[in-house]
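Re: Re: token formats

Sure, here are both.
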Amino acid sequence: MNFDTRKILVVDLDGTLLRTDMLYENFWSAFGSDWRCLFSAISALPRGRAHLKRHLACAATVDARFLPYNTKVLAYIKKWRRAGGRTALVTASDQQIAQGIADHLGIFDEVHGSDGKRNLKGATKAAFLEERFGETGFFYMGDTAADFPVWERAEKAITVDVPRKVRTKVEALCDTVEHLQSEKEIIRPYIKALRPHQWLKNLLVVVPMLAAHQLDGPTIASSIAAFVCFSLIASGVYILNDLLDLSADRAHPRKRNRPFAAGTVPIAHGTLMAGALVGFGSFLAIFIGLKFLAVMIGYYLLTTAYSLHLKRLIVVDICMLAALYTIRIFAGSVATSIGISIWLLAFSVFFFLSLAAIKRQAELIDSAARGDLKPSGRGYHVDDLPIISMIAIAAGYVSVLVMTLYVNSPAVVRLYACPEALWGVCAILLYWITRAVMMAHRGLMHDDPVVYAAKDGTSQICAAIILAFTLGGALL
């Protein structure tokens, strides 16, 4: 580390000081607050990127306290200042965004950003720095090929997490070069962003096939294809939801480790991934059938509406979650051309309403433990916990009641050799729902009860017993 404190250390923002890009940050923040921002952003673009950045900066609400900072860069800057050196934050991001970040950190002597007319990037930034600090009067810390013109005029080039090809080019441009490289995983964060553990929910598409005991080859193939399509589109939806919830996730002790919130996957990549996954899933859905494609489009529109607005509305949000679970069963019905009985529909609505209420109960318990009386992005208060718990128990018990009535229906006699065995299923469901509410009440429930059930040993035993009763009723 060569500290010539007679020079000023100039630091870039996006991808250097931050593990994110403020243009995308501001867009998703503004879009999450008002979906009409998409159209105003498109209308602002013809006036140049600097104008677009100013427009989005005014529309967005980004908390500088929770942004993903590069700790190595922060340590470097602080060490430079302790040695008596001056520092400047110079970025293509809008001036007011850069100033807010600089005010929070308190480690910069100067702050310069795009002003709505001039986009302070590449050759423009290089000319600005040379004019302000003189030829080779500064050290420059950057992270992309767009910084080549700046490094070429700097006394010293400092790169941050750049590819080997960029490092080689920088070494050819500047006599004195220093590389800061973070240890980071490449593939795993992208897989994590897809949330493959959430694909468990998509197994609901096979329920119509199992409920009808129709296990022939074409039906199984259709169910598998429906599962793949749903998983692709659902992952696109999860990424969209993560992009819209960046600020709330960063303020949460666990969710702040999600790939986009933590900056381990660039938001630009997430934007492309969300569109590509939904597009590819929809393309595959065409081969299953146009009715199935219509269901998938309906699912995507509902989840988008939920992410943008409906999740903030009390009661509406848990009803929407229950509907999104039930749509998976309906999608399986459409894919396999197997009708859904009124019994299955009624059971699904109440059972999934119970799961949705348990999910909210777990979130509120977690918020109460952290002293947050009104969770960010939700319409509930911690004081609502008793009502949410009652909804979870009541809806769960009604779903079991529907199951008991189904056991005594003529339809069961046609499908099961020993329908009495299904009473055991009712008993286990009653136990599991009651226990799940208790676990959520004690703060032991995962944010998502489905994921919790997949990892919980007792839940796994309950699932095995339910399977045994069901097979016993069908085969005995």
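Second one below.
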Amino acid sequence: MTSKVDGTAVSEALGYEQARDELIEVVRRLEAGGTTLEESLALWERGEELAKVCRRWLDGARARLDAALAEEETAGAGAGDAE
């Protein structure tokens, strides 16, 4: 399995739900406090990375929905012309 030091390759393999759940845990830990500055920075960086993964998944889902809706509209317009 390919892995980069910064975890980017590993993060890209995460599904949306996995990334979201881990992001929730990162936020919970940051909000709870009690971590060192170094730990807090590492958590924040991980959270940013996870948020990007989630955003890519959501953008991809939006693109698929838009394409399906556009296809449906095109098919509907073509059916109306046949009458």
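Helices lie at 8-12, 16-32, 37-81. Residues 1-5 have pLDDT under 50 and may be disordered.
- S.
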